[in-house]
Amino acid sequence: MAQTVKELHEKRMKIWDESMQNHEKYIDQNTGLFLDKYTKTRACPVCSSMEYQKIFSKEGGTYVKCVKCTMIYLNPVFNDKAIVEYYETNHTEQAQLVESDTDSFYINLYNGGLDRVQQEMKNAKNILDIGCSSGTFLDLAKKRDLRTYGVELNKLEYEFAKNKGHNVFNDLLENINFDNTFDIITMWDVFEHIIDGEFYLKYMKKLLSKNGVIFLQIPSSDSLAAKILQEHCNMFDGLEHVNLYGVETIKMLAKKCSLDVLNIKTVISEIGVINNYLAYENPYLGSATNKENIPNIIDETTLHQTLQGYKLQVVLGVKR
Prior knowledge:
Blueprint: H1 5-23, E1 39-40, E2 52-58, E3 61-66, E4 72-74, E5 77-78, H2 80-88, H3 93-99, H4 105-120, E6 126-130, H5 136-143, E7 147-151, H6 155-163, E8 167-169, E9 182-188, H7 197-207, E10 208-219, H8 224-229, E11 243-244, H9 247-256, E12 259-267, H10 271-278, E13 293-294, E14 298-299, H11 300-305, E15 311-318
């Protein structure tokens, strides 16, 4: 039987709590913001404009909106040394949740993504998953006879994925010397963690084989849930989600990197979460059971047709 909104998010709250505990050591207790020694200010990661307006601060970080292109991003952001240290020692709760998925939530998402990339790259032989965690997605890819490669900074998750038989590297992508190119490169809920998305898209493009594709699943700042809940939305975690792209801003970045958007859709409606919030309840732990529609406003089908779902799935290919 499908999980209720509350049951699903009770499991995820453990991840949130672990993340917040890891955040605390970086926060100035007087200001409630991250200590200056860990951070740096920056321009818009999409259009490079220095003009922005503050939206809100949360869990030590401050989210801003670019005046020029509407990109939502953290500013200031963790510096390179601090962010690598953070991820190398971060918790493994997300991996444990995915590994123990008994309701097929993640499995269905992963298989749907594989279907989309294999439609665009029909004769794919191999796949590289960046931020592969414990390797659950790569397990599914291997079942489709793809040679599986992964990159994972968290040492415990790296060891877990490696012990499953995947070719996994415990280093930054740009430090790895691969012996081959890749037909498919994926990032599942990872690209929003990367400060310089332009650099990484261009770097991934160099690793693609002829007609290879890049797949991204990212939280969408255009999602109805994010716009309604704003600082109450878990999308805004204050530290890890440094760049929150919308439909137009991810298209702008792809064009800047000479990549075509081959396929774009949204997944996960968060309608139940919105219904909780509109009923003056905790959005994630309220009593809503209706996950199909927001009464008198929108249903799940229309929400995804208009690309207002919680996460974007984007397939990119090299311009021809």
